[in-house]
Specification:
By secondary structure, the protein is of the alpha/beta class. It folds into two domains: 1-16 and 65-104 and 154-237, TPP-binding domain (Rossmann fold), CATH 3.40.50; 18-62 and 105-148, SIR2/SIRT2 'Small Domain' (2-Layer Sandwich). 33% of the residues lie in helices and 18% in strands. It contains ten helices and nine strands. The radius of gyration is 18 Å and the shape is elongated. Bound molecules: ligand BJW and zinc ion. Residues 8-10, 13-14, 19-21, 33, 37, 86, 88, 104, 148-154, 176-179, 181-184, 202-205, 207, 220-221 line the site of ligand BJW.
């Protein structure tokens, strides 16, 4: 059996990383997600955007994968599993998954915003989040930015093509912890449904996809995912 997983911020929420559209994102609660995660926002106020990523970078390094991440890794004993994630943390990999396609990049990679040269900046350890931090500067004078995909930027071809292939080859797609409102990523479950595939959604809340999926499990990732793939042959008949 071949399984594709399409994950979003909800799967990391139980590790302690706030979801993207969470009301409780501290200092940044006052900002629209677009302001801190768009190329326009970066061009307008890089210090604000850099501080937001510095805080999330520190947080993501401190937290551990949860039962949801570990369950998906365990499925590899029973099936070929491709994880397609919108998350920029590395909790799927740290949870043990071997094939992870990052559609929105990684917050652990950095490059110059002007010359694209990869960078490995020294990250200051903040004891508490601050609203503005000056980004490091490249030798060319450009600002160093995180290797993530912001609104208004293209997704990287490699992970995107791998994700489409994984969807097309999958017998079943598990959609977990995503609001499914950000495109083109959100078109992947639609693609699987258009192909008549079984799509299982795991999300405590309904999303625009919920009416179309085969099954919507209205619960958390850590409650639904352990043992799910082992039970799938019985569930799917
Ligand atoms: C749980 C849980 C638990 C909680 N268990 N579940 C077509 C139509 C309309 C617009 C567009 C379109 N095509 C493109 C666009 C524009 C735009 C877009 O989609 N806009 C819409 C929002 C309107 N897309 C883009 O700009 C994309 N690029 C692009 O299209 O390129 C072409 C182009 C070029 C030039 C100009 C214009 C276009 C790029 C999108 C990049 C998105 N980047 C971000 C930031 C990445 C870095 C970072 O993370 O910091 O990606 S935005 C943000 O949203 C982040 C996430 O990956 C992404 C998705 O969020 P996600 O993961 O779904 O999180 P939440 O918080 O929304 O949802 C969490 C869910 O979990 C909730 O449902 C909870 O209920 C649930 N949950 N606890 C299970 N325990
Ligand atoms: Zn540079």
């Amino acid at each position: 059996m071949q399984v594709a997983v399409f994950s979003g911020a909800g799967i990391s929420a139980e590790s302690g990383v706030p979801t993207f559209r969470d009301d409780e994102v501290g200092l940044w609660a006052q900002y629209d997600p677009y302001e801190v995660s768009s190329i326009d926002g970066w061009n307008r106020h890089p210090e604000l955007v850099w501080a937001w990523y510095l805080w999330r970078w520190q947080l993501s390094r401190r937290v551990e994968p949860n039962l949801g991440h570990r369950a998906i890794a365990d499925w590899e004993q029973h099936a070929k599993v491709h994880v397609i994630t919108q998350n920029v943390d590395n909790l799927h990999e740290r949870g043990g998954s071997s094939t992870v396609h990052h559609l929105h990049g990684s917050m652990f990679e950095f490059r110059c915003a002007d010359c694209d040269h990869p960078s490995n900046p020294v990250m200051p350890e903040l004891t508490e989040p601050v609203l503005e931090v000056a980004p490091p500067v490249c030798d060319c004078g450009g600002l160093i930015r995180p290797g993530v995909v912001w609104f208004g930027e293209d997704l990287p071809d490699g992970p995107w093509n791998a994700a489409v292939e994984a969807i097309d080859a999958a017998d079943v797609l598990i959609v977990v912890g995503t609001s499914g409102v950000v495109y083109p990523a959100a078109s992947l479950p639609e693609r699987a449904l258009d192909q008549g595939k079984t799509v299982i959604q795991v999300n405590p809340e309904p999303t625009p996809l919920s009416d179309r999926v085969t099954v919507h499990l209205r619960t958390t990732a850590s409650a639904a995912l352990p043992g799910m793939v082992q039970r799938l042959p019985f569930l799917l008949g």
